[in-house]
Design goal:
five-stranded parallel beta sheet; 8 helices; binds guanosine-5'-monophosphate; alpha/beta; Rossmann fold; globular; four-stranded mixed beta sheet
Amino acid sequence: MANSGEQLNPGPIVVLSGPSGSGKTTVVERLVAESSVPLAKSVSATTRPARTGEIHGEAYYFLKDAEFRQKLDQDDFLEHAEVFASGYLYGTLRSELHRAWTESAWAFLEIDVQGAMKVMQQYPQAVTIFLKTPSTEEFERRLRARGTETEDVIQKRLATSRRELEYSGRYRHVVVNDELDRAVREICEILKFEETQFHAG
Ligand code: 5GP
């Protein structure tokens, strides 16, 4: 298939997962800006409506349900999942891998645990990183401190994070986001190490 970039030229993939509230978004931004290993953030497709300020093609490709399903039928997705508690579909387009690799960068996927498991099956060599908060209590504290969620949503997020934590042992690396700068430094070191492995093997 013309858009199955990874079949033409397989390159490196890094997958980062972690519950919302683990500080993932900031870590992702910092890594893209600071990592010595070039990272091209994959833009996911989703059926979730755009939030204020989110731009199509930057935050996500916002698709109607039928459009998403058509792409599924065409085998355009490397992985997709209905993300816990959201009810919306999210997926990584194969064309995003191709885009990264043609830029000689690592394809950087920030996806949920279900998607990460699917990537691992297809690319056992993918560098997988699970970002977690120091403790469940700290996670709950951060979630409440944001002040943006209702109690119902908070309870759902906590349940999701407990479910996601069960998968953390399947990742190659687990990083505790106890302090932002330290966590970013640790991931940069992991990527540097993995880069030497990639070129060696
Ligand atoms: P949000 O709707 O808050 O932007 O993201 C909700 C969740 O969807 C996050 O945990 C994020 O990791 C996950 N997600 C985003 N893109 C993808 C994707 O392409 N595939 C999968 N499986 N999960 C995704």
